[in-house]
Amino acid sequence: MRFQFVLGEVFSGLRRNTTMVVAVVLVTFVSLTFVGAAALLQAQIGKLKDDWYDLVEVSVFLCPEGSVSPTCATGEATEDQIDSVRQVIDTELSSQVSKVYFESKQQAFEAFSERYPDGYQGTQLTADDMQASLRLKLTDAEQFAVVSDVLSGRDGVEIVEDQRAVFEPLFRTLNVATLLAAGLAGVMLLAAVLLITTTIRLSAVSRRKETEIMRLVGASNLFIQLPFLLEGALAAVLGSLLAGGGLWLAVRFMVSDWLERSVDWVAYVSEVDVFRVAPLLVIMAVALAALSSFFTLNRYTRI
Amino acid sequence: MIRFENVSKVYARGARPALDQVSVDVERGEFVFLVGASGSGKSTFLSLVLREQRPTRGRVYVAGRDVANLSGWRVPTLRRQLGVVFQDFRLLQNKTVHENVAFALQVIGKPRHVIRDTVPEVLEMVGLTGKGKRMPTELSGGEQQRAAIARAIVNRPQILLADEPTGNLDPTTSLGIMRLLDRINRTGTTVVMATHDDEIVNEMRRRVVELSDGVVVRDEARGGYGERESILPDVGASPVLDAPGSGTRAPVQTVRGS
């Protein structure tokens, strides 16, 4: 009885305020799409890190001839120095480093020639121009700082380099895009809250007479306010479902069907990620509606 | 049933109080007229009973409850024991008579079978048998007030408050409404009615509480409306009223078309 009655009130309220309800649906749709986009961008960054950080290594460049670095005062790194560095890696860094191999000047030159068969910027280089290094594979790429701390400053080590740095500009760009999406989402969410507030207020005013009678015959506060709460929540949830649908379409057609085919060596977000984000959007929508209702209803339908 | 103990109500700081040290005790099953000029405090009295307002000073007891100190979430329980009727009926125009009465039960969560049984009974009691499907606009003023009374008593309240229920009705119709209120009173419901209608008050001979400027100036067990100032105070012969048109005429201006 109660349930049916409340539902009836909700739908009559939605009908009466159709334009405002549509506006609420659209604004929550757009704002939550931005929220979802930000979340998906972060997921994409995570995927790229997972993927690429497995491929990259830490390079411990050993002193070449004529280095000005204070640790290279004795000239080119000697066998002893290299051995003692390896010793340190095997003992102190055994839990951080999973694999070590030595790249000699000759091997470095071969790798270089493979990449630049015609020489680099017009100069012809020889193996002697190359630098020997120890290549480390880390168990966890985030542990670079520890490794660098331990190895830097040892005799024979000129510099410890993290190849991850190569990807930094890309991740920075993606992070900026995330911030941008989140910022827009914030603005739109504010608009959504204001709009839901206005809608509930309008609804309350247009049903003033009913609520007045309800108050007088002793309807409880919850019973009076529930239809308004549900109205706002329903519109917001509808918007969030649209946002989820929009993101799904975008991922399906732009990422899975198009990007993945044209650039296929990158791991992309998939529809699974959308299904992971969508419930959060629905929860946000409900929270949004609850927040706006909380501020409005106490003012307009007080006993 | 209703008890006011030295109740004062001041709306705005520094303003004259709407009620000033009012003490009234209404017994269970009584019928009380609340009379007094507009602004004398009748409506404030009723809104204090309904707990739409809290008294500035003093205590208000309704059905054994200290209304002034009643916490917000308990107010609905209080109001379920009260019925209210207004001068302007306040029926919902988009609902039929039956729906209007049923609404009062629906919103306090009464089960459907109770509504199905009670509403026709109450409509019969107020004399609207067979008119349940009409819209309020299809009813006369008296019938609309009967519908409003039906809504007020459908939950069998202990107290019925009526704020000038006959204010919009002609004398004959008013009489019918008064008979109905009297019948409701005889079933044991306490009735408090604010009114300006001296004929009704004089005829019913029930308890009369008269307010003036927020003070109880009279509380009689079987009172009349009280002295009313005559409409035309005796100021001797007045040419305008006694023989209109015989005085000096104002010059008539004729406007000619050009």
TrEMBL record, chain A:
Residues that span the membrane, as ranges: 21-45, 176-202, 222-255, 275-297
Every FtsX extracellular domain range: 56-160
Keyword Iron-sulfur on entry: no
Membrane topology: Multi-pass membrane protein
Domain ABC3 transporter permease C-terminal: 184-302
Highest taxon of source: Bacteria
Its job: Part of the ABC transporter FtsEX involved in cellular division.
PANTHER family: CELL DIVISION PROTEIN FTSX
Subunit structure: Forms a membrane-associated complex with FtsE.
Entry protein name: Cell division protein FtsX
Organism from which the protein derives: Promicromonospora kroppenstedtii
Automatic annotation (TrEMBL), chain B:
Subcellular location: Cell membrane
SUPFAM superfamilies: P-loop containing nucleoside triphosphate hydrolases
Example GO biological process: cell division
InterPro entries membership: AAA+_ATPase (IPR003593), ABC_transporter-like_ATP-bd (IPR003439), ABC_transporter-like_CS (IPR017871), ABC_transpr_LolD-like (IPR015854), Cell_div_FtsE (IPR005286), P-loop_NTPase (IPR027417)
Region of interest called Disordered, as start-end residue ranges on this chain: 228-258
Gene3D superfamilies tied to this protein: P-loop containing nucleotide triphosphate hydrolases
A Pfam family recorded for this sequence: ABC_tran
Keyword check for Nucleotide-binding: yes
Domain (ABC transporter): residue spans on this chain: 2-238
Keywords assigned by UniProt, alphabetized: ATP-binding, Cell cycle, Cell division, Cell membrane, Membrane, Nucleotide-binding
Molecular function GO labels: ATP binding
Membrane topology type: Peripheral membrane protein
Quaternary organization: Homodimer. Forms a membrane-associated complex with FtsX.
The protein's role, per its UniProt record: Part of the ABC transporter FtsEX involved in cellular division.
Family stated for the protein in its record: Belongs to the ABC transporter superfamily.
NCBIfam families, per the entry: FtsE (TIGR02673)
PANTHER family: CELL DIVISION ATP-BINDING PROTEIN FTSE, IMPORT ATP-BINDING PROTEIN
Name assigned to this protein: Cell division ATP-binding protein FtsE
Lineage, highest ranks first: Bacteria, Bacillati, Actinomycetota, Actinomycetes, Micrococcales
